[in-house]
Specification:
This protein is mainly alpha-helical. It has five helices and three strands, in the order H-H-H-H-H-E-E-E. It has a three-stranded antiparallel β-sheet with strand order 1-2-3. The protein is elongated, with a radius of gyration of 18 Å.
Length: 108
C-alpha cells in the first residue's frame, strides 16, 4: 500500500467513527480502483517492451528516460497517475480524491 493509499484510508477512517469496516472500505475502493487499474495496465504494457539488450542499449534507454521524464509535456501524458491528491479539507467523503492541475486541487 502506498503512502497515498494510507493517507486516504486514514482520512476515511477518521471521518467515520460510527461506520463498519465494510462501509469504510467501499468508498476507499471506489476512489482507488480506476487509478490503480490504469497503473497496473501501464506496468504490464511496459513489461512487454522489456527485452534483453546490450550494455549500450541499456545506456541509450536510460539516457532517453532521463531526458523524456524532464520534458514539460510529459506531465500531461501521465497526469492522472502522478497528479493524484487527497483533499483533507473536503467535507464530502466521495470527493476527497482530486487531481493537482494548474496549481490547485480539482475534482477528476
Amino acid at each position: 500500500m502506498a503512502l497515498e493509499d494510507t493517507s486516504l484510508l486514514a482520512l476515511l477512517m477518521s471521518r467515520s467513527q460510527t461506520l463498519s469496516a465494510e462501509q469504510v472500505f467501499a468508498p476507499f475502493e471506489k476512489a482507488r480502483r480506476e487509478r490503480v487499474e490504469q497503473i497496473v495496465k501501464f506496468g504490464r504494457d511496459q513489461k512487454k517492451n522489456k527485452t534483453e539488450v546490450s550494455t549500450i542499449g541499456m545506456w541509450i534507454r536510460t539516457a532517453f528516460m532521463y531526458v523524456f521524464f524532464r520534458l514539460p509535456y510529459v506531465k500531461n501524458l501521465m497526469g492522472k497517475a502522478w497528479s493524484y491528491r487527497i483533499d483533507w479539507e473536503e467535507p464530502e467523503i466521495g470527493k476527497v480524491v482530486k487531481e493537482w492541475r494548474n496549481g490547485k486541487l480539482v475534482s477528476p
